[in-house]
Amino acid sequence: MLAVVTSGTKSLLRNIFRGRAEQATVDAGIRSRERYRRAALTALSGFGSKAVTMLTNLALVPLMLGHLGDMQYGIWLTLQTMLSFLAFADFGIGNGALNAIATANAKQDRNAVNRALASAIWMLILLAILIAASLAAGWRWLPWSTLLGTTDPVLLGSISAGLAVFAAGFAATLPLSFVERLSSAFQEGAVANVARSVASLITLCATWAVASRGGGFEVVTAAMMLPSLLCWAAAWIYMFRERPWLSASIRLADAGMAIDLLRIGALFVGLQICATLGFALDNLFITANLGPGAVASYAVPHRLFSVIVVLVGIVLAPLWPAYADAKASGDEGWIRRTLFRSLGITVAVSLISAASLSLVMPWLLHLWVGDRVTTTTTLTVGLAALTVVQCIGMTLAMFWNGTSQIRLQLLLGALFVVFATPIKVNLLRSSGVQTLPLAVAGVYVVCVLVPAVILMWPRTRAAIHPGA
Asked: 146, 392, 407, 456: which one has the fewest Cβ atoms less than 10 Å from its Cβ?
């Protein structure tokens, strides 16, 4: 009788644990599909947002140029460019908080989510106050007439007021735009993409209304800044309504969490600096070594290839928080499968796209700029190769960001910059721009991609063949 009971108990326990394992497998499968679904939704909305932004920017060019004139339009364009510095102005706090919130959310630790949110947002508010105070203190000492090249008091007053509006908007954007990182951490990047699209459309309408009524530079600047601020505020309202438990109360701000965010943020800033030095300053290198007249022959075809990088980046970006979620959930299999799939798809898409663009590049250039810019086979092939390796690099970057391997990225990025910079200078002096992109692509492969494979392969092989 005891043997029967014991056997029945073992069978019952075995069925219970098997049922739990099967349920865990089902839950993991559901969560895996949900990560892909959210990433796809974010990517699709990202394409829509990018299209709306590009179209509105194109529509704004003749409108603003006709209304403002050359000088004020140049200042307006410069202010638009300065908005890109927001990526550096937050000292990487936003990127660090994205990982912290995504990890805590995956573990369903609402307290940790709120501590990371409160710590990040109050640090950003403090930074915004410091920026605004610094600009306000130094405002009166700037030689406006010299900087702007005019002594017209009315024009000086309008432009300086516009710059003041921009400074205030820039400072306010710092904490308000953090909702973009927050929505990404929850794998709801579509929220930020919709907000950005609506802001672009409102900006176009507001700018048209201001121009039609003859508004001054300060009003035009307000029309450029206010829609984004309002749409970011609306996104915050949406996030808090969807998650009533969310709180950014200052009482939840944690000194230890703040220090961790600053430490991780510093690594992200280092990465951004490496990316800027490695890829974004080529036009400056060409100008310094060959003169400004040589820039167009490189920059114009490069801009066409950069479209591929941007579009691939839109698809890859949602994988960052998805990797963080999978890591916090212990779903190593999902991470491995997604990494291999994304690498395979990225290589195929970037190769086909870059090769196709290379074939039609002379025709596209003639259609776009006429005969003012021409290209060579060497330059085109080099730009295609650089495009492919950049896309592969982005794929790895999303994996490294989501799995918190920031130091490895920074080490490889710094190695790339150290070797690429002198090679660029020597090549430009010896052979011009023709071999520049191919050489940069080669350096990137040697300094980043090859070490990445060497460092990642043992762990990947162990995961695929546990007994090896």
From this structure: 146
What global pTM score does this model have? 0.80
Confidence band (pLDDT; 50, 70, 90) for 342?
very high
pLDDT digits (tens, 9 = 90+) for 307-322: 899 899 999 999 999 9
318 vs 39: CA distance, rounded Å: 5
Whole-angstrom distance, CA of residue 342 vs CA of residue 398: 10
373 within 8 A of 313, measured Cβ to Cβ: no
More confidently predicted of 281 and 16: 281
The answer for 247, left when phi > 0, alpha when psi is -120 to 50, beta otherwise, is beta
Q: Are 155 and 117 in contact (CB under 8 A)?
A: no
Q: Which two tokens stand for residue 213?
A: 């009524």
What does the chain come to in residues? 468
Tell me if 448 sits within 8 A of 415, measured CB to CB: yes
182 burial (CB, 10 Å; 0-12 / 13-18 / 19+) is: buried
* Number of neighbouring beta carbons within 10 Å of residue 205: 13
Please tell me the number of Cα atoms within 13 Å of 271 on its side-chain side: 23
Token couple for 405: 């391997």
**Distance, C-alpha 367 to centroid of its chain:** 31
Cβ-defined contacts of 243-246 (< 8 Å, 24+): 243/186, 245/110, 245/114, 246/113, 246/114, 246/117
23 DSSP assignment: H
- Quick check: 437 and 383 in contact, CB under 8 A? yes
Instruction: Tell me the one-letter amino acid at 68.
Output: L
